[in-house]
Amino acid sequence: MSRIQSTFQGLQATGRKALIPFITAGYPDGALTLPLMRALVAGGADIIELGVPFSDPMADGPTIQRASERALAGGMSLRRVIDIVRQFRAEDDTIPVVLMGYANPIEAMSQELFVAAAAEAGVDGVLVVDYPPEECSEFTALARSAGIDQIFLLAPTSSERRFREVAEAGSGYIYYVSLKGVTGAGSLDFDEVAQRIPKIRAAVGMPVGVGFGIRDAESAKRIGAVTDAVVIGSRIIEEIEASSRPQTLARVETFVRGIRAALDESAGT
Amino acid sequence: MADMHDYSLPDARGHFGPYGGVFVAETLMPALEELRLAYEACREDPHFVAEFEYELKHYVGRPSPVYHASRLSDKLGGARILLKREDLNHTGAHKVNNCIGQALLARRMGKPRVIAETGAGQHGVATATVAARYGFECVVYMGSEDVKRQAANVYRMKLLGATVVPVESGSKTLKDALNEAMRDWVTNVSDTFYIIGTVAGPHPYPAMVRDFQTVIGKECLEQMPEAFGRQPDVVIACVGGGSNAMGIFHPYIPHRGVRLIGVEAAGEGIATGRHAAPLTANSPVGVLHGNRTYLMQDENGQIIDTHSISAGLDYPGVGPEHAWLKDSGRAEYVAVTDAEALEAFHALCRYEGIIAALESSHAVAQAMKIAPTLGRDKLLLVNLSGRGDKDMHTVAERSGIRL
């Protein structure tokens, strides 16, 4: 069983929902990424999504674009992200780490070398935004044989046929993009999410996380009530942006702890 | 070379051999499927085809002539240089052919809002033009660097009723405008039609844009025998994303005796790294803007800044069909520097009274290179894809003149 699967099993046994915070690796700088991962865990993260910065992040809004540009200016790369995961894994053997990014840095390294290096470093899952299942069957096979879960996106526009396709190709969990738009965009439609999630869960047979548009304890709580996991990204980047360096770690930890408390409240624990 | 007689790429999923495809976030997949189905229905629909042809004739002013640049040819000696005059189209470039096609499709699909990305501004102007013509709301994304370089076109778009959004992210050029247009489309996918201006992007765009642009090459197939007694020996076109080149190349692909030469922007020279010539420089293959193709990138897979005097060629990738034509050997790709393009620009002004776009001047420059090496019986057909009014400031600045 993968680290991601056992995490969800453990949560389900206690009736709790997974909290999946996202940070961009290398933002605000490479030295702070590992301490930030520890802060996320201390605040109550169940899984960490680590953004691999890309020069052309088409699916991201201004906040993550800025973070990506800054990270790249500081010299962050896919290989360095994998090194950071290796360091994290040396000290933490339970919290799953999912790399989230775009296809080109992976293709530049080569799919084979990337999957081998990621698996060796202790990466648990990979979400490649611009790899729909029909374009990445070789990558999917490589990841699967290396024991890495490939996470796929579903959107409000996705058809039910699509549910089955990602269920077949993906594993670990499904990331439901709760609004039309880019990361960090406006408000989400709770009723739409509440209606769709049970259908998706029934069709895919794996946990469903919801992201894009979750900004505070209140929205996390409402989404948490209808889903298996809550992904929160741009809002954490904003927290880092707004903090002065000495306070960054404490501020991020406190923010994540607030979301954790709200989520646990909605689960009734 | 592969057999080109039954050339029918892309395949059903938009692949040209290993290139092309649909590499986008899940949010856009249903929109692309909707677009593909709508386009496939329209291209078989005689009413749609008739309407497209009517608009090209009466609104764009087609067919555009093939003109023998006799003074330039005589000056150079050697092969005769013929110009396919896309610069004479309404709005001054080939871009409008595709915009008419996509606008008619948007109307069929009931989308009230169109968006576009633009580099030099030609595609933005063409989109704003058709938006006014058919009554769409129109938003054009343009890198803030290009907004500065192409002020006249920005004003044109505004006159036509479009909103021009300067894009401040990344390198602030065409590729970033494309990113931003994609973000808009993801957000407003239900009421918005994204009019992509070149033969790149996710399927069906590379094939659809090509199909709308093939009017250029189809006209040449008829005009050449009428005016010059036979088909050309060589067809030359500039390649940024590559829409004007695909438009003139595609009908000639089965004509094995016709050499096809795509001309990329060598900028300050391929060796300097400051260029926009992924095919000529043999850049690695990668994924950007929804398709797999040759891409200018660093060793970590980050897209690198490109350079060309011509904003319309300043793009790190190239349409996937060009990538395939390069590998198959059916087309050759070369690159021309800023300086060579400027020289051709001035030559065409002086000898023919034609002020060509800097993009098209790259193709003219290549024709000027090879014409003297060929006999007078040879015919070089150059796609003069646009006029150069928009480039007055750039050219003047290069000559140390302030307008």
Question: What does this protein structure show overall?
Answer:
Chain A has 269 residues and is of the alpha/beta class. Chain A has a single domain (3-266), classed as TIM Barrel (Alpha-Beta Barrel). Chain A contains twelve helices and nine strands. Chain A has helices at 3-14, 30-43, 62-73, 78-91, 103-109, 111-121, 137-145, 160-169, 190-204, 217-224, 234-242, 248-266; strands at residues 18-24, 48-51, 97-101, 125-128, 149-150, 152-154, 174-177, 208-211, 229-232. Chain A has a nine-stranded parallel sheet with strand order 5-4-3-2-1-9-8-7-6. In chain A, strand 7, helix 9 (190-204) and strand 8 form a beta-alpha-beta unit. The radius of gyration of chain A is 17 Å and the shape is globular. Chain B has 403 residues and is an alpha/beta fold. Chain B contains 15 helices and 14 strands. Chain B has helices at 29-43, 46-60, 70-76, 95-108, 122-134, 144-149, 151-159, 174-187, 205-213, 215-228, 243-249, 320-328, 338-352, 358-370, 392-398; strands at 15-16, 19-23, 66-68, 80-85, 113-118, 137-143, 163-167, 192-194, 234-238, 259-267, 285-288, 290-294, 331-337, 379-384. In chain B, the strands form three sheets. Chain B has a six-stranded mixed sheet, sandwiched between helices. In chain B, helix 11 links the parallel strand 9 and strand 10. The longest helix of chain B has 15 residues, at 29-43. Chain B is globular. The model of chain B has no long low-confidence stretch (mean pLDDT 96). The A-B interface holds A 54-59, 61-62, 65, 69, 72, 77-79, 102-109, 129-132, 134-135, 152-159, 162, 166, 177, 180-182, 185 and B 13, 21-27, 29-31, 169-170, 175-176, 179, 182-183, 186-190, 284-290, 295, 297, 299-304.
